[in-house]
Amino acid sequence: MKPGGQSIGKTPRPKNIRFSGHQTFVCRNGWLEKGVGLVSRNPHGFLDDDAVIKLGVGKNMVESIKYWCLQTGLIEDGDEPTTMRCTDLGRFLFGDGDTPGVDPFLEDDASLWLLHYQMVANAPLSTWSMMLNLYNKPEFRKEDAESFIARRLADIGVTVSDTTLERDVDCFVRTYAGTKGKGGEESFDSPFLALRLLQPTSNPGLYRFNIGKKNNLPNELVAYAILRYMESIGGELSVSLSRLLFDPKSPGQVFKLDQGALVDAILELGDRKGPAFSYSDTAGLNTIHYKGDRLKLRQDAERLLARHYEEEERR
């Protein structure tokens, strides 16, 4: 986290903003698979009257499933009005009918980390992206998050109602930290609970980001995020460790990694055949280097993903 909990610059005015849409429902186990399957079979699937029957959920949940499939980058608008289609990512994970997906039932936690990355780094501006990229304090209460988001949106001339922000922040917290129902029983509906990214503290109403090494986050996913970050800043192949820890959309922010966790991932990757990552500490300047083609960073990142799943299949 940034020392002192200070924000990094002003939020750029976004091209797309997506607050609400989840109908207050967290993403539930099995929903993403259902949504992708529906669109794969019928580009108009979410608009059909029998969508509630095909998905086996209520009407509001149909809209929620669509929202989560959009935010995780699994589906997108189609070429024809009112149609939707699966993205390359959706086909990669779930298959396209002819070719099987690498993880059609989201059994590998790496897939959840990848979908989390999409929500935070590539989806329209949301509570998810703002809290993970721009909120640089380790702890927060829901009202703190609401005030922070409202202020940052005001900076770029955007207004979202208090009720919408309250519901969005509540859904964000339940996505990663769960919730307690009657009798104190924990809810395990959200698959993203497996990331253990956010946890309640002993202080009621106070939540803490889990900052540091994530045992179920593969090094290939960390490297994927590094390459995507390098691509986003114009193809720079040498980047300071500080930027990779604290810049918006960096692996440090998206995955809540500390310096030790990020350096360990790079060193472990450097010891293996494959991406030519290296770490240097010269004159107090900590830098990550990538010996690749700056014009092929996206392709290299995607090859890293494929390599992870190929290795998992061989195990």
Mean pLDDT: 90
Distance between the termini: 35 Å
Shape: globular
Biggest sheet strand order reads 3-5-4
Strand segment count: 8
Tell me what the structure shows.
The chain is mostly helical and 315 residues long. It folds into three domains: 31-105, Arc Repressor Mutant, subunit A, CATH 1.10.10; 127-209, no CATH class; 219-314, Arc Repressor Mutant, subunit A. The chain has helices spanning 31-41, 51-55, 59-71, 88-94, 109-122, 127-133, 142-155, 162-177, 219-232, 241-246, 251-254, 259-270, 297-314; strands at 75-77, 84-86, 139-141, 198-200, 206-209, 238-240, 277-282, 285-290. The strands form three sheets. It has a three-stranded antiparallel beta sheet with strand order 3-5-4. Helix 7 (142-155) crosses helix 8 (162-177) and helix 9 (219-232) crosses helix 12. The two termini are 35 Å apart. The model is unreliable at 1-11 and 182-186 (pLDDT under 50).
Please render the helix and strand layout as text.
Blueprint: H1 31-41, H2 51-55, H3 59-71, E1 75-77, E2 84-86, H4 88-94, H5 109-122, H6 127-133, E3 139-141, H7 142-155, H8 162-177, E4 198-200, E5 206-209, H9 219-232, E6 238-240, H10 241-246, H11 251-254, H12 259-270, E7 277-282, E8 285-290, H13 297-314
Helix pairs in contact: 1-3, 7-8, 9-12, 9-13
